[in-house]
Amino acid sequence: MAHYLIKRLGAALMTALLASLLVFLLVRAVPGDIVAQMLGQAGDDAAAERALRRFFGLDQPVWQQYLSWLGAVLQGDLGTSWTRGTPVTDMVLKAFGVTLQLGLFTLAFATLLGVPLGMLAGIYEGRWPDTLVQAFNLLALSAPVFWVGLMTLIGASLLFFWSPPLVYRPFAAAPTQNLQIMLLPVLSLGLLQAAAYSQFVRQAVVSALHQDYVRTAIAKGLRTRVVFFKHILRNILIPLVTFMGLILIQILGGVVIIESLFSLPGLGRLLLTAIQTRDFPVVQGGLLLIVGVAMAINLLVDVLYHVIDPRTRAS
Amino acid sequence: MTDMCADREAAGTPCSRWARRFGRSLRRHPEMAFGFAIIAVLLAMVAVPGAFTARSPIAIDVAKGLQPPSAEHWFGTDDIGRDIYARLVYGARVTLGTVAGALALSALFGGLCGLIAGYFGRWTDLVGGRLVDVVLSFPPIILGVVITGILGTGVGNLMLALSLVYLPVFYRIARSGAIAEAACTYVEAARALGYGEARILFGHVLRNVVPLVLVQYMILFPLALQIQAALGFLGLGVPPPTPDWGAVLEQGKNYLMFAPWISLFPGLFILVSALGVILVGRAVQRMIDTA
Amino acid sequence: MGKGRRNAALGMAAGWVVAWLAWAPASAYGPPVDGAPLGGNLTIGSLVEPPALDPFHQAADARIAVSLLMYQGLMYEDPSGAAQPLLATGYEVSDDGLTYIFTVREGVTFHTGAAMTAADVKYSYDYIRNPDNGSPGARDFNAIDAIETPDATTVVFRLNRPNAALPMTLTNKYGAVVPAGYFDDDAARNRMNVESVGTGPFKLVSFQPNSLLGLARFEDYWEDGAPYLDEVTFLFMPNAASLLVALRNQRIDLAVLGRPQDSEQLAGVPGLEITRFPSLNHKTLDLDANHPVLSDVRVRQAISLAIDKDELMRAAIGDYGTTIGTIVAGMQDAWGLPLDQVPFQGPDIAAAKALLAEAGYADGVDLELATIIGYDWMDPAGATLAQQLSEVGITLGINKVELGVWISNFRSRQMGFTFNDWGTSPDPHLLFYRHYHKQPSGADFRNWNNDDASALLAQGQATADFAERQRIYKAFQEIFATSVPTVMLFSPDWVVVTTERVKNYVQHPTGWYFGLIRAYVE
Fold first, then answer.
1. Per the CB < 8 Å rule, is B239 touching C383?
2. Which of B7, C58, C125, C319 is the most exposed place for a label (fewest CB within 10 A)?
3. Which CATH superfamily is domain C209-278+494-521 in?
4. Number of Cβ pairs closer than 8 Å across B and C?
5. How far is residue A132's CA from residue A150's CA, in Å, rounded to a whole number?
């Protein structure tokens, strides 16, 4: 186990290092920099441009910029935002909190809706509840998330004359406002994920019901509920954990448009703005955080797997 | 963590039995026929858009802007009087073409690299694996934004950006498939018979990995379609006046309370195409699984 | 302070033009409202978010729009076109136009609590005009040779050439008066996003990325009774649909619409008021004179002739604007060449075709137009322009460019053929000089390099007499319309949507939020 963990951690560190280098080079490959944006269509003075480049350290060779950035990161300092002048660590963590809440709420919503639906469909395989659930799954899986978001926003405004509040406040500080602002984004993201869950669970239930030992158990006259909890649920629990991890990673990184639509100050939007304003320290810090969290979740899921299911230890 | 062995065995079946299985499968799952019908219509739209509408997707008539759906304009008109239906019909080629092309690119390159890494292992696997980890952990839309920022917008660059997003997925699938194959007895047997590595790889292993990649292609298609539309929504898609579903959707966001049809219909088009691909994808999966 | 004493101090005998000596102090920002209720808060929705709040180092229009609530210059850019005293109480200018003496307002306090003196004014303008400090506005101030402070309330600007636009330059777009020595610390410019140090009616409370900018009434503000509002909050929402929904449901009190025609979606919604205001913004089509095809003046003239500005405007913003000839709509009356005298105005397909044939493009030519991502008007306008140009044989491809990339191309003078979107302070020198005077004194991003035009621009800067300036700028516009470095298309109106409780918000033609200083809520 210890050997496995060390190996995994080593690989994760290598990935993080590679990712940081790649991010560093990629953002610098986009034409234009913050200096051009600060001077805009107005200032074309060469001295002003030089002065600003020097201020941001953009006059140094790229490798030197990278090394000094990396050195600071290794000491836990992600630097200062070039636009806001505030510490990048504070900015990305604050934004990450918003996205994390969105991710966890979506996960909860998807689990509460998707798992029962999938079980229902699996138990009634081939009958009308199954057909209904499958139709829902197909529709929810096919609809573009941001389009659903747009339609729910407009729908809520036109039908109920209601729109979500615009200032995000943490759940702990203002629960009602927080829940109101989270409602539509969680719904837009959650429908798709619920469908993914439900499809997954249905498949697991169906294949479990076809297993000989389950059939035997049912044939022996064991109560359905017992069979269910003893055999089926236990079997789908572990893959479900993996699935949750995957979905969480997906949400943490991929909700730029939902965040924009619902004015959530999340990580996706922070990154997008930072790319647009060429605020390199924020882009680097934010992506590093996403990469780190993704690897942590993967690692956690793998370790869980490893602990729970001894068979995987062989591979 | 899928069961490689089952996948391999499933993939190992000969093509000749497919047709028969297809018929049986269609009888058992009538919704599949629906999926195939959607795909057929979409393919026809891509091939001969002119057969679906006589209108031009780019002709402007500012005086006839923002007209609601009518007999004349089935899906209404946009802000500068272009027929939405025509734009969506002609947009099929652009939108679906971009996604299909991008995924084909990533399937080809990602699949090939994964195949080699999985089969030969060692340093190829190590380097490839880390690179893939990195790209996979980047959020797809952010990656798309950066790549189109570097390359500029346009159909070709959009395709490249999308293909880069999904390259790692194909890499991993092909890699795990190749690892499972490389461990199988027939590979050792072929080696013993004196076959060259390249011949084993491309002659046998490849044939058994292709179905995996194909299924993955179908699974990713709806997701890639969403990302393509999302990039279009951020303005990073196809430049005007080229019709594109994401671009029409984006254009409509400014008129949602006034002319909701502009955004409604492209969304539905994306939904229905995704639906078609999912249904057909399931059919393909089923054919491969039910050996 | 007596005039004699000041002249003595400067060692000058006579020959002073006296201007704005006894201007009523409250006239900047518009007349105060007697009996306006004090207090309350106002929430403004905005599609764009200022990248930073620093008035010295940030050119973005979104920054200017809000920073002027916290930071003030010596003068105010009155919509009439004449600069009015703000932190100054008046100024005098010497006959040769080379010396400006400003009297600094007394009793002005910075947000830091310190009192403002002439030394602060000198420091601030010395800082911005030194290019080594990296301000985008530095070039506007390069006519200044030296700034002197003979006493605590007098600031003397000595110029190296006459500059009739100096008062308008010392307004609120670039730079402001901050405490002397503020930038000595390198980290100071970053602090401007955390706390404000200006003299403006509002001070910074919080500035959260992708969320909001909160301002509060500055208790020690120098104007008696102003401002009326206790709090002003800007909410940033990048999506136009979200903004409209928020207005509809009155989650915000005020929005200046980026696309004026969006107001149609809110027409008839109870509780909302929609008002139109004239604008100093304009949408243009820029033509790079170094471009292989566009370098031929006949091609540029043909393009100008092929364009139907009316149709283009309707495609882009509906009927919510004014098509223009050679100057922004808000300055047409005072400075514009009469529209019926502007040469090479379309649509005249035959003439355009003839010019193209003369230039050797009888069989047509391919061009690529750059549009900026996020500028919603450019997409429909681009498609319409492509259709219009196709009628004279020009095949137009459209290249969508991300803003940062576009700025970088523009600044390296490789903009090619592009839509542009900019505004101005209400003075022809500030509108034209930097963009169209040849290098090195102008930026000349379009590589126009026109000697006659540059000579007129220099003359316009140096001339103080209004009628004479008018004549000069009209002559300039004639060259401009004939040589076509830019086709000026239209000025969109500012359409402001407010809830009923918002009173007396007047939109400044620059699009900036000066109006909040006189607005109140019921």
1. no
2. C319
3. Periplasmic binding protein-like II (3.40.190.10)
4. 76
5. 25
Identify the closest residue of chain A to B248 by CA–CA distance.
A147
- Of the partner residues A48, A163, A273, the one whose CB lies closest to the CB of residue C249: A163
* C200-229: pLDDT as tens digits: 999 999 999 899 999 999 999 999 888 999
How near does any CA of chain B get to the CA of A290, in Å? 7
Does the CB of A15 have a partner CB in chain C at under 8 Å?
no
Indicate which CATH number applies to the domain containing B124.
1.10.3720.10
CATH, domain range C281-492: 3.10.105.10
The structural domains of chain C, with segments of one domain joined by +, span 3-31+57-64+71-187, 209-278+494-521, 281-492
Closest residue in chain B to residue A13, using alpha carbons only: B130
Rg (CA), chain B: 22
User: Would you call B141 and A145 a contact, using CB atoms and an 8 Å cutoff?
Assistant: no
Assigned domain for A41 exists: no
Say if B7 falls within a structural domain: no
Q: Which of C266, C383, C400 is opposite residue B80, by nearest beta carbon?
A: C383
Which top CATH class is C3-31+57-64+71-187? alpha beta
- The set of residues, in sequence order, having a beta carbon less than 8 Å from that of A63 and lying 6+ positions away, is none
Of the CA atoms within 13 Å of residue C144, those in its CB half-sphere come to: 26
pLDDT attached to residue B259: 80
Dist. CA A303–CA A105, nearest whole Å: 24
Mutation target to probe the B interface, by most B beta carbons within 10 A, among A22, A138, A291 is A138
Examine the pLDDT at C407 and tell me if it is beyond 50: yes
Higher pLDDT, B5 or A66: A66
CA distance C210 to A269: 7
Q: Where are the beta strands (DSSP E) in B179-252?
A: none
- C 404-463 residues with CB below 8 A of B? 404-405
Contact between A193 and A243 under an 8 Å Cβ cutoff? The reply is no
In angstroms, the CA B230 to CA B144 distance is: 10
Q: Which residue of chain C comes nearest to A92, CA vs CA? A: C209
A20, part of any domain: no
Q: What are C419's two structure tokens?
A: 């839509």
* Residue C398 predicted with pLDDT over 80: yes
Q: Is B130 within the bounds of a domain?
A: yes
Residue range C3-10: mean pLDDT, rounded: 42
Residues of the domain holding B120? 17-289
Mean pLDDT of C374-395: 92
pLDDT-wise least confident of A270-274, B152-156, C210-214, C325-329: B152-156
Cβ-based contacts of C397 with chain B (< 8 Å):
239
Residue pairs spanning A and C at CB distance below 8 A: 172
Which chain A residues are Cβ-neighbours of B235 within 8 angstroms? none
Quick check: C314 and C308 in contact, CB under 8 A?
A: no
Range of the structural domain that residue A121 is part of: 108-266
Out of C239, C264, C382, whose CB is closest to B240?
Answer: C382
Domain count, chain A: 1
On the question of a common fold for C209-278+494-521 and C281-492, the answer reads no
Q: Which pairing describes strands C394-401 and C365-372: parallel, antiparallel, or unpaired?
A: parallel
Per-residue pLDDT, B90: 92
pTM above 0.95, yes or no: no
Cα three-residue angle C495-C496-C498, rounded to 5 degrees: 150
The model's pLDDT over C27-61, given as tens digits with 9 standing for 90+, comes to 689 888 888 899 999 999 999 999 999 999 998 89
Q: How many domains does chain B have?
A: 1
